[in-house]
Amino acid sequence: MAIKVGVVGYGTIGKRVADAIAKQDDMSLVGIVARGYDWRYAMAVRRGYSLYAAESARMEEFEEYGIAVKGSFEDLIQESDVIVDCSPKKVGASHKPFYEKYGKKAVFEGGEKHELTGVSFNSSRNFEESWGKQFTRVVSCNTTGIARTVGALHEKLGVKKARVVLIRRHTDPWESHKKGVINTVVPVLKVPSHHAEDSKTVVKDLDINTIAFSTPHNMMHINAAFLEMKSNVEKKDVLSVLEEENRVVFVSGKDKVEALNSVFALARDLDRSRGDLYEVPVWEESISVNGNEVSLIWATPNEANVIPENIDAIRAITQSLPKHKSIEKTDNSLGILKKLY
Ligand SMILES: NC(=O)c1ccc[n+]([C@@H]2O[C@H](COP(=O)([O-])OP(=O)(O)OC[C@H]3O[C@@H](n4cnc5c(N)ncnc54)[C@H](OP(=O)(O)O)[C@@H]3O)[C@@H](O)[C@H]2O)c1
Questions:
Q1: Would you say 31 and 51 are in contact if contact means Cβ atoms under 8 Å apart?
Q2: Is 86 a catalytic residue?
Q3: The domain containing residue 232 runs over which residues?
């Protein structure tokens, strides 16, 4: 029996989650929640997705444009086994009482607080913690990047202290006309930034400090880590941990992957929908090792890197497939690679 999944919130993350669910042979997409008519929902209809109205009062708006609405937000909940709530931060939290009312399971996103669900999710680091839970929360794109890179090195080699710098795109391309920063860099003045605490929700005993900045670009984030390891390591060990890690790939300046825009262009050449990159690319030559000190630089493709985790989170809370089988199935369905080129 396929797991029936509804998607609430059809923005950067929601539309990608919906597409990924539609690709799973053990899931069926019940539909998506739409707020009011615009081109994004018209495109969803073209993809064959059923629309459910967030606000009953706005149902007529869709009809005016010749778009049939199948039901309401609460109808979608009742028809689904699991809801993936990709609405903006705090809005997702406000929906939790509805999921409780109908006794349904739900996956929330990284904009919500860990306390909302009491458990957070990263496929490789703590899949089992969400096993059978009613609610879980997929950590943010940056935390997912940290969990896959620093988290893997911590699990396999032992990190004593992690110090991570996050240089973040200020806004996503689809809404960059609405808000942005121009010709400046904005530091997050609270140190550590929230990413440090968030990382510890999935990599439990990591000593981590993070400093974050927003910058006037809109292609992905770029992050750097300085790690003090528990003991001396060799570069080949670091390379081998990252080589073996799911959803981490190497890129190199030798191959002219020299900046975020190169990663962006490379992703589009993969011919995936929207040029999405689910993998976290680590610059091979940035990995420097000196005794017990390791440093590395990676890109965080924020629009897409959490999508495979959302699919695995659905399987974890519904207890439908164990960790390794779920990761393998998700990666095959999305065409996730160990080498991008
Ligand atoms: N963007 C990223 O890079 C990224 C990465 C990882 C995780 N996340 C997390 O993912 C979540 C969603 O972020 P996003 O970037 O995808 O947001 P987004 O692009 O702003 O999309 C949010 C969507 O939710 C809809 N929405 C707003 N209020 C709603 C309501 N009451 N009921 C149903 N739908 C509603 C919006 O519709 P309208 O536009 O019509 O208002 C929009 O379709 C957040 O928790 C965020 O922190 C984001």
A1: yes
A2: no
A3: 141-300
Indicate if ligand 1 lies below 6 Å from the C-beta of 173.
Answer: no
**Mean pLDDT score of the chain, rounded to an integer?**
97
Please identify which of the residues 69, 76, 141, 336 carries the catalytic annotation.
Answer: 141
Q: Residue 333: what are its φ and ψ, rounded to 5°?
A: -70, -30
Whether the CB of 118 sits within 6 Å of ligand 1 = no
Residue 341 lies in a domain: no
| Beta pairing partners, 273 | none
Q: What percent of the chain has pLDDT over 90?
A: 95
DSSP-derived 3-state class of residue 169: strand
Whole-angstrom Cα distance, residue 246 to residue 249? 8
From the first residue on, what is the mean pLDDT of each consecutive set of 10 residues in the chain (341 residues)?
97 98 98 93 96 87 91 97 98 98 98 98 98 98 98 98 97 91 97 98 97 96 98 98 98 98 97 97 98 98 98 99 98 98 97
129, 152: one domain: no
264: enclosing H helix or E strand: helix 260-269
- 69 and 33 in a common domain: yes
pLDDT, tens digit, for every residue of 243-286?
A: 999 999 999 999 999 999 999 999 999 999 999 999 999 999 99
Pair (167, 84) in one structural domain: no
Half-sphere exposure of 42 toward its Cβ, with a 13 Å CA cutoff?
8
Mutate which of 10, 12, 55 for ligand 1? The one with the most ligand atoms within 8 Å of its CB, which is 12
234 Cα–ligand 1 center, Å: 42
pLDDT at 58: 81
CATH of residue 282's domain is 3.30.360.10
CA dist 329 and 314 (Å) reads 13
**Nearest by Cα to 214 from 252, 247, 163, 176:** 176
- Total domains in the chain come to 2
- Residue 27 to residues 20, 77, 132, Cα–Cα distance (Å): 10, 15, 17
